[in-house]
Amino acid sequence: MLLNTQAAYPNSPNLYQLPQLQHNFSVSDLLTCLLVQVSMKLIAESIHFIDNTLKLYHWALLRSTLARRRHWPKSS
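User: That's the sequence. What structure does it adopt?
Assistant: Structure tokens below.
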């Protein structure tokens, strides 16, 4: 059931007839937005690369540690 908001609240704007927003973006605004988005993407990719590098280093360190332990003399 739809309610008529104009009848209940005559001073309120009609929700179905909101004014159109004006988009007056300059070329500078659009280029700034694009630069920010590209920068955020590069930062995200850098973090992802560093995370993967640290994971690979961790596994390599773990493998080398386990390999050394296999060659240690057994304690009696």
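The mean pLDDT is 79.
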